[in-house]
Design goal:
Blueprint (H helix, E strand, L loop, with lengths): L3 H6 L9 E4 L5 E3 H17 L7 E5 L4 H13 L2 E4 L6 H11 L3 E4 L4 H11 L2 E4 L7 H7 L15 E7 L7 E6 H14 L7 E4 L6 H14 L2 E4 L5 H7 L5 E4 L1 H8 L14 E4 L6 H11 L4 E6 L3 E5 L13 E2 L4 E5 L13 E6 L11 H7 L6 E9 L5 E6 L4 E3 L2 E3 L1 H9 L4 E11 L3 E10 L7 H11 L8 E4 L13 H7 L17
Parallel strand pairs: 1-10, 3-4, 3-5, 5-6, 9-10, 9-11, 11-12, 12-13, 23-24
Antiparallel strand pairs: 1-2, 7-8, 13-14, 14-15, 16-17, 17-18, 18-19, 20-21, 22-23
Helix pairs in contact: 2-3, 2-6, 4-5, 7-8, 10-11
Bound molecules: methylmalonyl-coenzyme A and adenosine monophosphate (AMP).
The site of methylmalonyl-coenzyme A has 22 residues, from helix 8 and strand 13.
């Protein structure tokens, strides 16, 4: 039966003995073996009574098996909901209940803590560890690999990806089969991926970048991936000579450049490095070219929209720009107040329309209406201008968002936890420059009374509530928060005053005449 995403990404490889996943030791998993594995998981889903449209929430370490669960979900029409491995039990509770997941798959180490979460949400709980073992794999091993595919229409949901919101509550972005498929086709074509490509894959697979951009493009082209559990600098340096492409967040590139072992000759076989998820400094782009001769191709996207713009493959890849709208994707700059389109050169917000743009937020029609216009344009909240060569330059954000090492943190969510702590009157959370993560989180606290707030106790509560990457790297007590005449907290004042907290740069000193 027709299932456009499965038919394009997976079905063509069912009988292939070409390499798909290669581990750090060089062991190869062929396409055929991978799809056999996925078929067994699909058979397990059938046994459990999962039906097309049901949600499967997965919080598991990166492994071929975890990726096979994505394939099995597409095959069976089950909506795939991957979750950051850093999320705490408190965070997971929301995702599982909000999505109404019927199946929750987690690491065995978390199964006890998540048992109650699954039960309360009426979800079945199965386990999968970092080696791909656990109750689900045991169950699947006894079954014959299924070749049945669920019939799906292009608009049917394939994935639900939660993105944090400015109001603090995460929203599930509904991605249809065609949202994923159209972007995979466009990027494969634009970036000239072929079956000869070997992509060094060190990104997590619970986000758009590692799952849809990197994996879907490889699947579409029939190429292979050196599939690493995480970004391990030494491993990446050792394996680069075997790869032809790598996709990364800016932190990958700054970490490589900071290591003297990373030399240009390691990249001789490489044909493409791409960067996204956070701004790549022009300085990093230039240093990378000086070291390797490669110009990193920067592209820009969002969970809700997949990829929106890209620098050209052939043609000028310009540092400090995110390139031009992808073929078939419209992007424009509008006035945030009026929504009117602005002329080139003026700063406004990026709006985007095309087959890549999501179907709305899961069970949040009002939020959807706020961000997705009736005419199909999605308001990204990113501030940019179009330069005289038609390239988009992102200059800031019209949303209170921090991006640390490619992960998004909405200050509101952290402030809510800080505000709830004893001895805290109010708080403000901002992002400041960080040499490794680009930006990092700093929390400012105003005490309730005369007593100093107990920062260690507060940090412990934050750790209980929020994933590690959201934790303030520093908590600072202030007598009061800077406010404007309207009483609004001036986060820009805090950002400026503490801009050099982690960069080691000294604040400029007044010039001396002596
Ligand atoms: C890990 N830690 C972090 C981060 N990652 N803290 C802040 N921000 C982070 N991004 C924590 C660790 O838990 C650890 O905590 C400490 O920081 C140092 O960890 P380290 O070993 O240095 O980190 P790592 O494990 O090497 O990870 C850094 C990383 C990773 C490689 C940059 O965060 C990463 O792979 N990021 C990619 C994110 C991504 O794929 N984003 C795409 C989103 P402790 O101090 O307790 O030990 S999709 C998207 O944005 C759109 C669609 C797009 O355009 O792509
Ligand atoms: P997410 O919600 O995780 O999908 O993150 C999307 C956000 O990441 C965008 O709205 C941008 O703010 C940011 N982003 C992605 N790619 C780039 C890029 N190349 N340059 C600057 N920001 C980027």
């Amino acid at each position: 039966m027709a299932n456009p995403l499965y038919d394009a990404l997976f079905a063509p490889h069912a009988a292939s003995d070409a390499p798909f996943l290669i581990d750090a030791e060089g062991s190869i998993l062929t396409y055929g073996a991978f799809l056999q594995m996925a078929g067994r998981y699909a058979a397990a889903f059938h046994r459990m009574g999962l039906a097309p449209g049901d949600r499967l929430a997965l919080q598991a370490e990166k492994s071929p098996e975890a990726l096979a669960l994505y394939a099995a979900a597409v095959q069976t029409g089950v909506v795939f909901l991957p979750l950051n491995t850093g999320y705490t039990v408190a965070e997971l509770e929301y995702f599982v209940s909000n999505s109404g997941a019927r199946l929750l798959i987690c690491d065995p180490a978390k199964s006890e803590a998540l048992g109650a979460v699954a039960e309360a949400a009426g979800a079945r709980l199965e386990t999968l560890d970092a080696r791909g073992q656990g109750s689900l794999t045991d169950r699947a091993a006894t079954l014959k690999s299924s070749t049945e595919t669920a019939a799906r229409a292009p608009d049917d949901l394939a994935a639900l990806l939660y993105t944090s919101g400015t109001t603090g509550r995460s929203k599930g972005a509904m991605m249809s089969q065609d949202n994923l498929l159209s972007n995979a086709r466009t990027l494969t074509d634009l970036w000239q991926f072929t079956a000869e490509d070997v992509l060094l894959h060190a990104l997590p697979i619970f986000h758009t970048h590692g799952l849809f951009v990197a994996s879907n493009v490889t699947l579409m082209a029939g190429g292979s991936m050196i599939f690493l559990p995480r970004f391990d600098l030494d491993q990446v340096i050792a394996l680069l000579p075997q790869a032809t492409t790598m996709m990364g967040v800016p932190t990958f590139y700054t970490r490589l450049l900071d290591d003297d072992c990373f030399t240009g000759d390691l990249t001789a076989r490489m044909r493409l490095f791409t960067s996204g998820s956070a701004p790549l400094l022009a300085e990093t782009h230039n240093r990378f070219e000086a070291r390797t001769g490669h110009r990193i191709l920067e592209r820009y996207g969002m969970t809700e929209t997949n990829m929106i713009t890209s620098n050209p493959y052939d043609g000028a890849r310009r540092a400090g720009t995110v390139g031009v709208p992808l073929p078939g994707v419209e992007a424009k700059i509008t006035d945030p107040e009026t929504g009117e389109t602005l002329p080139d050169g003026e700063i406004g917000q990026i709006e985007v329309r095309g087959p890549n743009v999501f179907q709305g937020y899961w069970q949040m029609p009002e939020k959807t209406r706020e961000e997705l216009r009736e005419d199909g344009f999605f308001i990204t909240g990113d501030l940019a201008l179009v330069d005289d060569q038609g390239y988009f330059q992102i200059v800031g954000r019209n949303k209170d968002l921090i991006i640390s090492g490619g992960y998004n943190i909405y200050p509101k969510e952290v402030e809510a936890v800080l505000d709830a702590q004893p001895g805290v009157k109010e708080s403000a959370v901002v992002g400041v420059a960080h040499p490794d993560f680009g930006e990092t989180v700093v929390g400012f606290i105003v005490a309730e009374g005369a007593a100093e707030p107990e920062l260690d106790a507060i940090a412990a509560e934050v750790a209980e509530a929020l994933a590690r990457f959201k934790h303030p790297r520093k908590l600072i007590v202030l007598p009061e928060l800077p406010r404007n005449t309207m009483g609004k907290v001036q986060k820009n004042v805090l950002r400026e005053e503490y801009a050099d907290l982690f960069t080691g740069r000294e604040a400029p000193r007044p010039q001396s005449n002596g």
